[in-house]
Amino acid sequence: MKKLNVKPADGKLGIMVVGCGAVSTTFITGVLMTRKGLTKPVGSMTQYDKIRVGKGDDKKYLSYYDIVPLTNLSDIEFATWDVYPQNAYQAAIYAEVLKEKDIEPVRDELEKIVPMKAAFDKNYAKRLDGDNVKDVKTRWEMVEALREDIRNFKAEKNLDRVVVIWAASTEIYVPVYEPVHGTLAALEQAMKDNDVVHVAPSMCYAYAALAEGAPFIMGAPNTTVDIPAMWELAEKTKMPIAGKDFKTGQTLVKSGFAPIIGTRCLGLSGWFSTNILGNRDGLVLDEPENFRTKEVSKLSTLETILKPNEQPDLYTDYYHKVRINYYPPRNDNKEGWDNIDIFGWMGYPMQIKINFLCRDSILAAPLLLDLCLLSDLAARAGRFGIQRFLSFYLKSPMHDYVNGEEPINNLYQQYTLLKNAIREMGGYEPDEEID
After folding, report:
1. In angstroms, what CA-CA distances link 155 with 18, 149, 204, 237?
2. 270-303 burial string, b = 16+ CB within 10 Å, else e?
3. N or C: which end of the chain has fewer CB within 10 A?
4. What is the pLDDT of residues 31-41, one digit of tens each?
């Protein structure tokens, strides 16, 4: 077995989270509680999953830590940015995701995590009213201020490495605009010219992270790193990027269930998905322009799994609709309904109903942990640009659409990509094929 050149996970890793709301405080609290032995990181594949390596007599099942050098949870430091100034303890209590008894044991640590001023433009999230915001005149000044935050955090906590992950609200939809998003030079000029229409605040976070040698992960459906200019920057800085949109509830079900229909060669007439959600994310998505960003992300899943060009008898002209409704009483406890109209032998119709009463932040938190640890691993392994092996965790996986590449949305194919990448970085044969 040949060990690949993956640098060890020496020293401390800084995880900088954009947003100090329900998702990020649930994630941070869970990691701190796990470190104290007071809870278990259920749902995290880096902490629980085992992968087969080798074949025949050499076959064994190993945890990720036994295959590749991952950062230990005790070596992580946290920082956040947010438009609201409340520290992580106050934000966790306010979010009402976790019970007080699961927050109190790490209160001291959480209180020390005070969000830095956010790089924010109210036009991108009209429902947010916080005033903990950077006073900058241009998008380029925004980038420079964020770069300084990253450098300061690194120095203050004596960190070896940093990862930046977006767990803030969904921005309004920014269509890809080639004159600005097509090249790095054009994007930089647009930032200096303060082009607020084509340069979202999230792009400033991504640019700052990559420029400071930190992998960047987009956890919302924002366009952010899904543009050639950012791919160029990731290549120039030799940094990994991943996105977009954490795959938590309904889309996880869809990416896992649609392959059942496809594998069984059943037909699809329509798939209607609706959600009710009451947290701050739900409030922001109640704005039509912000929902449009999410809708594009959620709709893309099905079309790459059940393909009309490959099975015209089964998947031509099916109707696919996605809805999210803001409903405050539910807070973070999201409910997703899927109504699936299928047809079978001789065209006879059947229905499938799925009702998923999930907890948004409880499902998202382990994804943040895995994405941060695996992005850091990728950087130490010299992998840069789009990290397709992280598609498993994301609703709308990044892909090179400029050259006609299609994203892989089938959950089981995504899992194969993930396993093969871990094997390869661990010096084993990436021995599973995607059919």
Report:
1. 19, 10, 21, 20
2. ebebebbbbbbbbbbbbbeebbbbbbbbbbbbbb
3. C
4. 999 999 999 99
Of 25, 13, 31, which is closest to residue 378 (Cα–Cα)? 13
Structure tokens at 434: 């995607």
Neighbours of 135 (CB within 10 A): 7
Cis bond upstream, residue 244 (ω within 30): yes
- Sequence-ordered alpha helix ranges (H) in 249-309: 250-263, 280-285, 288-303
Element (H, E) at 362: helix 360-380
Q: How far apart are CA 261 and CA 389, in angstroms?
A: 24
Scanning 18-103, the segments in alpha helix (DSSP H) are 22-35, 45-48, 64-67, 88-95
> What's the pLDDT tens digit per position in 318-332?
999 988 888 899 888
- CA Rg value for the chain: 21
pTM above 0.85, yes or no: yes
Of 213, 113, 115, the closest CA to residue 161 belongs to 213
- C-alpha distances (whole Å) from 383 to each of 53, 72, 139, 225, 229 are 21, 20, 28, 16, 18
Whose CA is closest to 307, among 367, 357, 278, 267? 267
30-81 tens-digit pLDDT: 999 999 999 999 999 999 999 999 999 999 999 999 999 999 999 999 999 9
The DSSP bridge pattern shows strands 335-343 and 267-277 to be: antiparallel
pLDDT at 24 over 90: yes
pLDDT confidence tier of residue 2, bands split at 50, 70 and 90: low
Q: Whose CA is closest to 253, among 344, 396, 355?
A: 355
- Note the pLDDT of residue 292: 75
Both tokens assigned to 300:
């893309």
* Contact between residue 407 and residue 300 where contact means Cβ atoms under 8 Å apart: yes
* Angstrom distance (rounded) from CA 432 to CA 425: 15
Residue 367: both structure tokens together: 């994804």
* Tokens encoding 37: 């032995």
Neighbouring CB atoms inside 10 A of 347's CB total: 9
**Can you give the length of the chain in residues?**
435
